[in-house]
Amino acid sequence: MDVRCLRYRLKRQGMLELDVWLSNLDDVLLSEDAALIAAVQMLLVCEAPVLLAMMHGDQAIPDILNVYLRKSL
Q1: How many CB atoms lie within 10 A of CB 4?
Q2: pTM for the full predicted model
Q3: How far apart are the first and last CA of the chain?
Q4: 55: confidence class by pLDDT, cuts 50, 70, 90
Q5: What is the pLDDT of residues 5-40, one digit of tens each?
Q6: d(Cα 69, Cα 62) in Å, to the nearest integer?
Q7: C-beta of residue 73 within 8 angstroms of C-beta of residue 55
Q8: Which residues have CB under 8 Å from 53's CB, separation 6+?
Q9: Residue 59: how many other CB atoms lie within 10 Å
């Protein structure tokens, strides 16, 4: 998937709370690290309730993204 499409999807989850939380991954996409980008892509397949559960610590965040997403909590 194109990085531009992923960046767009990061900002368009439909919930401001998720949009802000996921905005921490914007720099990840600029890194061009294939493993990180693949992890973001897999994360964005999740439905909003699953993402909310991750954000609130009720479900595990993928290890590779944990450092980026936990810093905002």
Answers
A1: 9
A2: 0.78
A3: 28
A4: very high
A5: 767 776 676 678 888 888 888 888 888 889 998 998
A6: 10
A7: yes
A8: 59
A9: 13
